[in-house]
Amino acid sequence: MAASRLHQRLEQKQRIEARGGNVDVFAAIHALDLPVLLRPLEGLLGAYISDPAPGVLITTQRPMAIQRFTAAHELGHFCLDHQLSLDDETILRRMAATLAPAMDFQEVEADAFAVGFMMPQWLIAWHCERQGWTGETLARPSTVYQLALRMGASYSATCYTLGRYNLLPQNRVQDLLKTQPKQVKAALLANYQPQDYRGDVWLLTERDANTRIDGSRNDLFVLRLEEHSGGGYLWDIDQLRESGFAIVGDAVEDMDGDGVGGPVVRRVTAATREANRGTLVLDERRPWEPDEPLASLAVDYDFTGPEEVGLSRAERRIRLEAA
Questions:
Q1: Residues sharing a CB contact under 8 Å with residue 74, sequence separation 6 or more, in sequence order
Q2: What pLDDT shows up at residue 318?
Q3: For the chain, N or C: smaller number of CB within 10 Å?
Q4: Which residues contact 156 (CB under 8 A, 6 or more apart)?
Q5: What local confidence, expressed as pLDDT, does residue 102 receive?
């Protein structure tokens, strides 16, 4: 209930319905004038300090999804008027312990707040409706992985949350957890092999138009777009290069199987090179009619994560916009 009240206060649902993306935990912390510092903490994911004045510490030594969940947990301590809390890896292990006894009710409350604030049911429903994901497709590891990316959560946390909301049966949740994110990434990248699989892999289609994605510096993305090459229309991949992305894969897939003049699927794999934050714009046009695109795709992106030492990315962005 506290998480829902804060969503209403900060108009989170309206913001996401207008722009897409996830619940920006660090922006919410800044909006509440709650000081937050990022430091390379040893043995801790985060901490909430209640006295002499409220404040939050978050580690810089974890991936962005864990930083966000930890920040939501510490925000829960603040919103629920809790006392000092030093939080280690147990806040992640408790996600799986749905039947474990409550040893510390303050921590249980903060955990519940973090899930409710980062991954509310309305956010899951919004992404499923936009992407056309049904109950059947939501039971696939590839779908859950993409949902996790769009909510800014880890794959495992998303699996557990789907089970907690009774959107998937517990036996299906356990089946999903048997799949490692690396397997999903490798399948998405097909023949391309990155140096490592620490970065995430986004699958972007026409359904992601006019929305936003929030990732990390070593993320990749796969564009899977319908292309009307039979009519001479091609997606202008040079626009990606001009925006600072490196093209590491480009293939065409037949859609209808007859291969005679029908639309095909253009599958382009790109990596961040110089592009950190901006808008990805891609047009499908005839090369000899450059001013008349048949279709366009625009996606706002931020690939500057994870959070680094100092102020959060959200606070730095807000300060720059106000300057």
A1: 36, 46, 47, 48, 56, 57, 58, 85, 87, 110
A2: 87
A3: C
A4: 95, 96, 177
A5: 55
Q: Confirm whether 126 is domain-assigned.
A: no
Q: How far apart are CA 221 and CA 203, in angstroms?
A: 6
Phi, psi of 272 (to 5 degrees): -70, 130
pLDDT above 90 covers a percentage of the chain that reads: 82
The lowest-confidence range among 63-72, 91-100, 243-252 is 91-100
What CATH number should be reported for the domain holding residue 229? 2.60.40.2020
DSSP for 207-231 reads GGTTEEEEEETT-EEEEEEEE-GGG
* Number of domains comprising the chain: 3
- Whole-number pLDDT of residue 94: 76
CA angle 274, 276, 282 (to 5 degrees): 80
**Confidence at residue 262, expressed as pLDDT on a 0 to 100 scale:** 78
Please answer whether residues 111 and 73 qualify as being in contact, where contact means their C-beta atoms are separated by less than 8 angstroms. yes
Cis peptide before 52 (omega within 30 of 0): yes
Locate the DSSP E strands across 96-233.
Answer: 201-204, 211-216, 220-227
Residue 322 binned pLDDT confidence (cut-offs 50, 70, 90)? confident
Q: Is residue 310 part of a domain?
A: no
Same domain, 206 and 255: yes
Question: Which tens digits make up the pLDDT trace of 282-291?
Answer: 999 999 988 8
Rounded CA separation 248/271 (Å): 7
pLDDT (0 to 100) of residue 211: 95
Indicate the helix (H) or strand (E) that contains 304.
strand 295-305
* Domain identity same for 30 and 110: yes
Whether 155 and 235 map to the same domain: the answer is no
* Span 275-283, average pLDDT: 89
In a domain, 318, yes or no: no
Whether 317 is in a domain gets the answer: no
* Token pair recorded at residue 72: 């939501």
Q: What angle do CA 63, 193, 69 make, to 5 degrees?
A: 15
**Which domain covers residue 137, as residue numbers?**
131-179
